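Researcher: Excuse me, tokens okay?
***
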Amino acid sequence: MWDKIEHEGFEIWVLPILAFGPSAPTTLWHYSAYVCRHGAEPHLAGQSTRFYELVKTFGTEDEARDAGYRAGRRLVDSFAG
């Protein structure tokens, strides 16, 4: 399920993704995410910036989500820098 936080006037949306097959106690996770301005239409071209991590794996769904949020914050901070 997609989860969202806000950072510096942007929304950061993250979706943890199972790395392999069905959920099991040793399941590994990736994430897909995007950043957009509050109120934007992210499905329209130019309204969002998408990013993902499909190489590195995370031990839990929460770890994948937190990694996505950290990457999103860095991305937003780079817009201002």
